[in-house]
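Q: SnoaL-like domain-containing protein, please. Structure only.
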Amino acid sequence: MTTTTITPILAQWFEYMDSDDPDRVLGMIADDFVMSVQFSKGAGQSAEFVGDRAGLIGYLEQREKSVLVHHIDIGVTADGCEMVLGRTTRAGEFEASFTATAQVNGAGRVRRLLIARTPEVSFA
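A: Structure for SnoaL-like domain-containing protein:
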């Protein structure tokens, strides 16, 4: 994973997601966590994963482990939120672009998470 120091929570999140043990992100979420992951496979095929902790567990259960690498290309932190633009690669090749926004509480836990990804748009 390419990291950035300007968005330490999301950098850690994607480092965990890229590992053999992505369930470690469960230790990063707040009690009032809510998420939405908009996941496009391209050609108009997409799915949305939503919910609280249980929704995140469901998302983690269905995804491939240790296959994709997240690269954060641009990141910014403002008003308790971290926002990134990045890309995922598979075996070193572009797979998709993604954006992620996380609202972080005072304890450094993720309260809100919104992720969108698509293979249809590359920022390269």
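A: Brief note, in case it's useful. The chain has two helices and six strands.
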